[in-house]
Each structure stands twice: as structure tokens, then as C-alpha cells.
Amino acid sequence: QVQLMESGGGLVQAGGSLRLSCAASGSRFSINVMGWYRQAPGKQRELVATITTGGRKNYVDSVKGRFTISRDFAKNTAYLQMNSLKPEETAVYYCNADRILDISSGAYGYDYWGQGTQVTVSS
After folding, report:
1. pLDDT given at position 49
2. Residues 6 or more apart from 2 whose CB is under 8 A from it?
3. Of 47, 58, 52, 5, which is closest to residue 32 (Cα–Cα)?
4. pLDDT of amino acid 28
5. Are the C-beta atoms of 51 and 59 separated by less than 8 Å?
6. Which of 21, 33, 42, 65 is positioned for an S-S bond with 98, CB 3.0–4.6 A?
7. What integer pLDDT is reported at residue 26 of this predicted model?
8. What does residue 89 show for φ and ψ, rounded to 5 degrees?
9. Would you state the pLDDT for residue 67?
10. Over its length of 123 residues, how does the chain's per-residue pLDDT go in tens digits?
């Protein structure tokens, strides 16, 4: 079982920056894909960015050039650096971990979520 804990959300003015962190904890495991999603009030949850074990990154078009996803494998932590934030990006940001190998059993788990962290961008 893997637990994900996000941190780093908060209130920022438009044009400002925030850095989100997602720490994974649990028994011996290896996570293939880590990602960030967001859900604004009244809207569906949407993908923001993902990063694979091999370092392949994927971003939604609206954040390209402003957001950067990264991983620290030693700390089992993923980060999302968000620059030039816009008011419309106010949302709860969720960390996701997918295709997780339990090293002890050899079994895979899929689609784990953190509890979310609120990001509010004021105009």
C-alpha cells in the first residue's frame, strides 16, 4: 500500500509562483508514473502534468512553459513548480501515482491519489 501526501498549496497573487510536493510512502515499491491533476469548482478533474521513471514528461498545453514537473527518486517525491499562475488555475491539485510495483510481492497497483492541496490564485 502506498500513501501520497501533497503539500505546498496556498494563496498567491496572479503572476506568482508555488511549488507543490507529493511524497510517497509505504512498503518497498517503485512508481512508474507520477502526475499532478487539478479540479476547479464545478469542473472535472484534469491532467496537469506527468513524469515517468525514465524522465518522460507530459504537460497539458495550457501550462507548457510555465509549470515544471520533476521527481526525486531518493525521496520518493514528485514536485510541480508553477510559475506565472493565473486566477483560472485556482483548484484543488491532486497527486497521482500509477503502475506501482510492490517489490516484495511483485504485484502492481494502479491509480493512487493523494488528498489534494488547495491552490488559490487571486487577481
Report:
1. 98
2. 24, 25, 26, 29, 31, 97, 100, 109, 112
3. 52
4. 86
5. no
6. 33
7. 87
8. -95, 5
9. 98
10. 899 999 999 999 999 999 999 999 987 889 999 999 999 999 999 999 999 999 999 999 999 999 999 999 999 999 999 999 999 999 999 999 999 999 999 999 999 999 999 999 999
Residue with cell 509562483: 17
Q: Which residues pair with 105 in a beta bridge?
A: none
Query: How many other C-beta atoms lie within 10 A of the C-beta of residue 94?
Result: 21
Rounded to whole angstroms, how far apart are CA atoms 32 and 35? 10
DSSP-derived 3-state class of residue 16? coil
What are the angstrom distances between the C-alpha of 2 and each of 48, 84, 104, 105? 21, 32, 13, 14
d(CA 21, CA 36): 10
Buried-exposed string 62-86: b where 16+ CB fall within 10 A, e elsewhere:
ebeeebbbebeeeebbbbbebeebe
- In the three-class reduction of DSSP (H, G, I as helix; E, B as strand; rest coil), residue 61 is classed as helix
